[in-house]
């Protein structure tokens, strides 16, 4: 267990926005039905009034949100009632930063959280505002919408939404995985769905008269966009519960501008998905979810189809949804195969901060963060000596070298190759190799100096005597490999010894590639250089003998799969995943630390040898695979 460390530590180099450098404006529109307000559409603008670039990651817009609704009884009387936080749904409208990212939608970097009194719009990934730049909603300036899961109207006479300000937030645990069940429709419920391709731009006029033609997938000239057809009829004598029935469509989000160029990969947010319906119709009781593997249409929780009722789209040829690229480029039809239906459990679209388990987790993180900030702000010499040490860790005077004890292939030899040594990078199927010499050239022809005050090991020790390295910032490395505006969830590292680890894309602040030590010599074989260093994370997140880097959707590495925390931020004491794995690793760490009574030499020997043994066991068995079945706290 004790090999969980891997070297080098951490200085808190958060490149985050200070709230007082941001100017905010807010208003909202009301969506009414039969005179009742059933939806609020928020319009916010965030302007960087500072002279320097700021990053919104880790901040949240906070709103006063009483969450009061009007409940109408059968006799027509109306009662005001407090809705549960879990009863609210929020969705992000296309939002962008003026002057940055070429107008790219930043909604994938935004989530929502709610309590009985507040609503938070959280920025969970990097959104950088240049001086004077503004984040706002597109089109009508709408940024997000909020409504009750059962469309209960907002209470009359109660201010529904009021901006309180912008400040840092504390992560809660992730939403639990939603169980999936097979859908078994009664024989008296007719349920069908299908997807067809439709004309490109030059064929629109010619096909407009073919009102009833439904072309099969792959028909020549009919591939500019997709139409989804849904038809449900309840012939029972009672309501049929459609809650959380989900139709999943595989789609690779690529277009084919012309036959010579072939496929061009896009992202889910580069496409439009339009629902066809009005009033109390299909569009009110369904929502669309996108992922990198396709899209899904979900019937909302609480929706039931009445006896004798039918539900279908009202669009062209009675389609329910249309999927198309902004310029109606042909899509890759072959990727849209194998749609299926299933029933999921109810999903939370906002984090319920009043949930006791969530509240306990958030309060613990907030205490750790406040203690870290307090220690970092003190001016005493004693505090300065230990600043940057993880909570609960003890400082050691000798750096402890840990690894899996695996052999390093002879071809992996940066100590001989020098500037010619290459590292492999992969993103969305594109693979490139960059030499250390190329990375130095991209950095202006020289290495940048990096100074660390401590290296924090997840097993309970910190080397706090200071470390200095020369190298290049991770942002320069990735720009040299792939250019600007990269989209990914995690940075997955692979070492030449087979070790793997993943770093959440939200935790890359201040990261760099350590190439040489203070003397200018290549980081030694003992310390596994060159390697990436992440200032805000525990040491196991830095892979020794770095061979390749992949930018991808999240996948756990060696220790993450065996029970270590997904993110591993030392300031928040994120060591182990929740559940059984947490108890196992905590017990092993406690046993190891008992050996310190025999002196550092014995303690270090137990840690190093024990780590190699456990690493070997974990490599060939599933002894600790229990970590895979536990959701990680984020």
TrEMBL record:
<dbReference type="Pfam" id="PF00174">
    <property type="entry name" value="Oxidored_molyb"/>
</dbReference>
<keyword id="KW-0732">Signal</keyword>
<dbReference type="InterPro" id="IPR036374">
    <property type="entry name" value="OxRdtase_Mopterin-bd_sf"/>
</dbReference>
<feature type="signal peptide">
    <location>
        <begin position="1"/>
        <end position="17"/>
    </location>
</feature>
<feature type="domain" description="Oxidoreductase molybdopterin-binding">
    <location>
        <begin position="466"/>
        <end position="555"/>
    </location>
</feature>
<keyword id="KW-0472">Membrane</keyword>
<dbReference type="InterPro" id="IPR000572">
    <property type="entry name" value="OxRdtase_Mopterin-bd_dom"/>
</dbReference>
<protein>
    <recommendedName>
        <fullName>Oxidoreductase molybdopterin-binding domain-containing protein</fullName>
    </recommendedName>
</protein>
<feature type="transmembrane region" description="Helical">
    <location>
        <begin position="602"/>
        <end position="626"/>
    </location>
</feature>
<keyword id="KW-1133">Transmembrane helix</keyword>
<keyword id="KW-0812">Transmembrane</keyword>
């Amino acid at each position: 267990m004790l090999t969980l460390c891997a070297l080098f530590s951490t200085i808190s180099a958060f490149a985050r926005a200070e709230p007082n450098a941001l100017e905010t404006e807010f208003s909202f529109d009301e969506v009414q039905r039969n005179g009742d307000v059933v939806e609020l559409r928020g319009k916010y603008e965030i302007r960087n009034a500072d002279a320097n670039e700021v990053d919104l990651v880790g901040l949240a817009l906070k709103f006063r949100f009483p969450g009061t609704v009007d409940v109408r009884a059968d006799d027509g009387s109306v009662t005001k009632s407090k809705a549960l936080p879990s009863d609210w749904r929020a969705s992000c409208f296309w939002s962008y930063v003026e002057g940055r990212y070429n107008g790219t939608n930043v909604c994938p970097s935004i989530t929502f959280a709610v309590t009985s009194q507040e609503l938070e719009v959280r920025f969970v990934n990097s959104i950088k505002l240049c001086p004077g730049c503004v984040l706002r909603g597109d089109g009508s300036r709408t940024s997000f919408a909020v409504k009750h899961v059962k469309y209960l109207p907002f209470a009359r006479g109660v201010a529904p939404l009021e901006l309180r300000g912008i400040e840092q937030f504390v992560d809660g645990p992730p939403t639990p995985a939603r169980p999936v069940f097979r859908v078994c429709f009664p024989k008296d419920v007719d349920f069908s769905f299908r997807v067809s391709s439709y004309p490109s731009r030059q064929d629109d006029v010619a096909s407009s008269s073919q009102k009833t033609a439904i072309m099969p997938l792959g028909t020549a000239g009919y591939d500019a966009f997709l139409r989804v057809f849904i038809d449900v009829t309840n012939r029972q004598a009672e309501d049929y519960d459609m809650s959380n029935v989900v139709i999943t469509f595989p789609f690779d989000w690529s277009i084919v501008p012309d036959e010579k160029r072939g496929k061009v990969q896009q992202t889910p947010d580069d496409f439009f998905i339009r629902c066809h319906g009005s009033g109390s119709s299909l569009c009110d009781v369904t929502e669309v979810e996108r992922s990198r593997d396709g899209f899904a249409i979900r019937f909302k929780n609480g929706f039931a189809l009445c006896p004798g009722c039918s539900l279908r789209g009202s669009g062209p040829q009675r389609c329910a949804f249309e999927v198309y690229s902004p310029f109606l480029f042909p899509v890759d039809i072959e990727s849209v195969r194998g749609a299926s239906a299933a029933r999921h459990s109810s999903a939370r679209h906002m984090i319920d901060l009043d949930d006791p388990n969530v509240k306990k987790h958030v309060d613990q993180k907030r205490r750790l963060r406040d203690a870290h900030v307090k220690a970092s702000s003190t001016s005493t010499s004693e505090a300065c000596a230990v600043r940057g040490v993880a909570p609960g860790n003890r400082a050691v005077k000798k750096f402890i070298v840990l690894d899996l004890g695996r052999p390093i292939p002879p071809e992996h030899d940066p100590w001989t190759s020098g500037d010619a040594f290459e590292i492999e990078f992969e993103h969305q199927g594109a693979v490139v190799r960059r030499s250390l010499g190329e990375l130095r050239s991209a950095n202006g022809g020289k290495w940048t100096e990096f100074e660390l005050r401590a290296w924090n090991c997840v097993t309970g020790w910190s080397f706090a005597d200071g470390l200095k390295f020369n190298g290049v910032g991770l942002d320069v490395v990735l720009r040299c490999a792939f250019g600007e505006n990269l989209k990914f969830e995690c940075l997955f590292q692979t070492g030449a010894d087979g070790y793997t680890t993943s770093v959440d894309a939200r935790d890359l602040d201040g990261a760099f590639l350590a190439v040489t030590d203070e003397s200018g010599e290549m980081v030694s074989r003992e310390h596994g250089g060159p390697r990436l260093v992440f200032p805000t994370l525990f040491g196991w997140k830095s892979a020794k003998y770095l061979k390749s880097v992949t930018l991808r959707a999240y996948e756990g590495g060696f220790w993450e799969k065996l029970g270590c925390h997904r993110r591993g931020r030392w300031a928040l004491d994120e060591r182990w995943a929740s559940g059984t794995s947490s108890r196992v690793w905590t017990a092993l760490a406690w046993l190891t630390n008992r050996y310190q009574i025999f002196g550092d030499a014995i303690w270090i020997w137990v840690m190093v040898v024990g780590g190699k043994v456990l690493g070997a066991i974990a490599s060939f068995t599933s002894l600790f695979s229990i970590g895979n079945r536990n959701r990680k706290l984020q």
